[in-house]
Amino acid sequence: MNTKLLYIKEDLSNLDELEPIARAMDKGQVVCFPTETVYGLGARYDLDEAVKEIFRVKGRPQDNPLILHESSVERMAAYYKDWDKVAETLTAAFCPGPFTLIMEKADDLKTVASAGLNTIGLRIPDHPVAHALIKYLGRAIAAPSANISGRPSPTNGSDAYEDLAGKVPYIVVADPSRVGLESTIVSWVGGKLELLRPGGISAKQIGDALIKAGIDPLDLGFKVFSMEDYEKESKPRAPGMKYRHYAPRANVHIIKGDNLEDKLSYIKEHIDQGSIGLKPGFYISIELNKRLSDNPWPVLTFEDTADHHAGSHYLFTAFRELDREACSDIWVENLDFNGLGQAYMNRLEKAACKTLRDPSQGPHL
Ligand code: AMP
Ligand code: MG
After folding, report:
1. 3-state class (DSSP) for residue 171
2. What's the CA-to-centroid distance between 93 and ligand 1, angstroms?
3. Which atom of ligand 1 has the smallest separation from the CA of 145?
4. DSSP class per residue in 125-155
5. What are the extents of the domains in the chain?
6. Mutational test site, ligand 1, from 67, 99, 147, 194, max ligand atoms within 8 Å of CB
7. Does position 237 have pLDDT exceeding 80, yes or no?
8. Ligand 1 pocket: which of 39, 68, 102 to mutate (most atoms <8 Å of CB)?
């Protein structure tokens, strides 16, 4: 298949070129497009064969549901069975944005995107290109991240092309994704609010929004994870609960430590033990890199801000770049839980995991 690239200009003056792409989607074609989280692989949610083609192209297990993307909260609400104050509060606070809400689906909603579940996840991308494509289509786009299953999600046009060239008819290219990690997924089912996947909106932001609306998150069973909870959770409760995902070809290792000194000794220790790999590469903060003098190996750096935006923004890009440098191992600095830290550590842990997915453990997140 010949893959055409459509470049959207920075001033958005050629957004109307998305219209023929929407018409191709009407005919069942699958299209890669940019969002603020990562690039997505989309099809009309109501065309079963087109949605099945997404699973096929990605090599995604059939039991792993896809998220639908809509253009307004009003339209989004129509896909669910019920709508209440919690849904209203969360969508008012975080839509459009990197926030997916899973609730029971409307009785008449038929889509293979939900993989046979009675729930559905929707979000509203905060991206002019994704928004225009949904508008031209006039209905929801079912879209997971545009990576081949198990790989790091693409956050720019060339990374999307690397995975999808020859497999889809169109890749729409705009700026690199602003967030660089997938959306936060929250499930509000059976009176229980659960954070299924940390992402661009932090658990603390969700808790704060509920409290501001007079709702106590604890009454909904919603827990804002602490570092302690996280450490408990990251020890697998059963085999197969943790498996490798978001991963480059190289082995991924986490540089552990609470401060620069600890992290530096962690690296030195592994160098001394000879466990650093044949050709190590590094993804670390500028501050840590300054302390690693005479390092002969490839290093990509990020500016470590309080909200960890830069570290998160470049994580998947760095994985792919260091793969292109043929690194055997990638050493990545850990971050604390502030801002995007929880989402960053979640992706990093999964990329560093040695266990492959056991499909009997249900959908992976
Ligand atoms: P992706 O867009 O590739 O990051 O994948 C979407 C994620 O959302 C997957 O991990 C799915 O398992 C999860 N997901 C989507 N819909 C549901 C749902 N109804 N229930 C639970 N998880 C869901
Ligand atoms: Mg994904």
Report:
1. strand
2. 21
3. 3
4. ---HHHHHHHHHHTSPEE--BSSPTTSPPP-
5. 4-173, 184-232, 251-359
6. 67
7. no
8. 102
Listed range (23-32, 60-69, 226-235, 257-266) with the worst mean pLDDT: 226-235
Characterize 347-359 residue by residue with b for buried, 16 or more Cβ atoms within 10 angstroms of its Cβ, and e for exposed. bbbbbbbeeebee
137 lines ligand 1 (CB under 6 A): no
Give me the CATH topology for the region 4-173.
DHBP synthase (3.90.870)
120 vs 200: CA distance, rounded Å: 20
Ligand 2 centre distance from Cα of residue 34 (Å): 14
Residue 114 sits at φ, ψ, to 5 deg, of -85, 0
Identify the CATH class of 251-359. alpha beta
Q: Which atom of ligand 1 is nearest to the CA of 40?
A: 2
- pTM comes to 0.93
Residue 362: is its pLDDT beyond 60? no
Q: Which residue's CA lies nearest to atom 1 of ligand 1?
A: 144
Dump pLDDT digits (tens) for 330-346: 999 999 988 999 999 99
**For ion ligand 2, residues whose CB falls within 5 Å:** 145
| Ligand 1 pocket test, candidate residues 62, 66, 122, 148, most atoms within 8 A of CB | 66
Q: Is the confidence at residue 77, as pLDDT, over 50?
A: yes
Q: What is the pLDDT of residue 223?
A: 75
CB distance 185 to ligand 1 below 6 Å:
yes
* Rounded CA separation 263/335 (Å): 11
User: Is residue 359 scored above 60 in pLDDT?
Assistant: no
The helix, strand and coil proportions of the chain, stated in percent and rounded to the nearest 5, come to 35, 20, 45
For the segment 48-62, the average pLDDT, to the nearest whole number, is 94
How many Cα atoms occupy the beta-carbon half-sphere of 192 within 13 Å?
Answer: 5
**What digits encode the pLDDT tens for the residues 84-99?**
999 999 999 999 999 9
Ligand 1 in contact with 182 (CB < 6 A)?
Answer: yes
Beta bridge partners of 172: 6
The rounded mean pLDDT for the chain is 92
